[in-house]
Write the structure tokens for this entry.
Amino acid sequence: MNQDELVDTARRMMADGKGILAADESTGTITKRLAAVSVESTEDTRRAYRELLFTAPEIENYISGVILYDETIRQSASNGETFPALLVGRGILPGIKVDKGAKDLAGHPGEKVTEGLDGLRERFAEYYELGARFTKWRAVIAIDGANALPSAACIEANAHALARYAALAQEAGIVPIVEPEVLIDGAHDQAECEATTRRTLRCLFAELEDQGVLLEGTVLKPSMVISGKQCGKQSSVLEVAEATLRTMKRHVPAAIGGIAFLSGGQTPEQASAHLNAMNRAGPLPWPLTFSYARALQNPVLALWKGDAARAQAAAAAFTERARLNHLARQGEYEAAMEKAAAA
């Protein structure tokens, strides 16, 4: 493990004013996203869509890294340049999703554990050669108060897997993003989300310490502390920011390389507003940014719809969404900017 290299990469990922694009949707997930705008999912349409994102104008000013999928890291742009090389040429770090997805947790109905540790050391060696300098592993934690979920077993199994993955990543010279996502699905209120997030983070950082993971060379990708989508009472922007920061300050060590929030089913506007409110809260123990997928891409897909004639407008929409989150990273975003951007 080269600690200096890991710390330097984490710092570049958390560069001031920049965030991370999550473009690591599995083939199944991107197929659903493309189908929603009536685009057939083929290797070529997936490649064309990712190229649109990666070549959008000026994104290097707002995006520090891009998380790729196994198919994507092996693909090339229309000019023959590999996607990792294209990104590096723009000063953007290539990353790679390595988990194999959330599977049913034996003996625990309604809960999942993420798989993919088998053969991971060898896969990391290959991904490093392909250009990946950071990586991501996602765990999912569901809240269901009626059935006493999440169980301690679910939280512990996922935290242990995240820590083992992180140790293997650092061994390979790759910065791990650890993503313990507390799902927004459900009728739980904000207090239930906060309690679950606290339990999850406590367990995660204990496991990271046990596995010898270098925190300065690690990035945390948590969900925000927010009510479930089916909850009758939705929290205000300020309430989300306050609860999320309170939870992070209590349970995330100051040594961590940074925090890059996932959007987790929020609208693009909500994700920007919440990030902005947190960054306006004053000095924080760690750099705090975004690692969004749908909150960056939904406006792009809605414009593109697989039509090459719309590609330029769609790319401009991506740049604008990235710029707005760049402002939110600095606490300079205003809701009125949404209307100006749409005009």
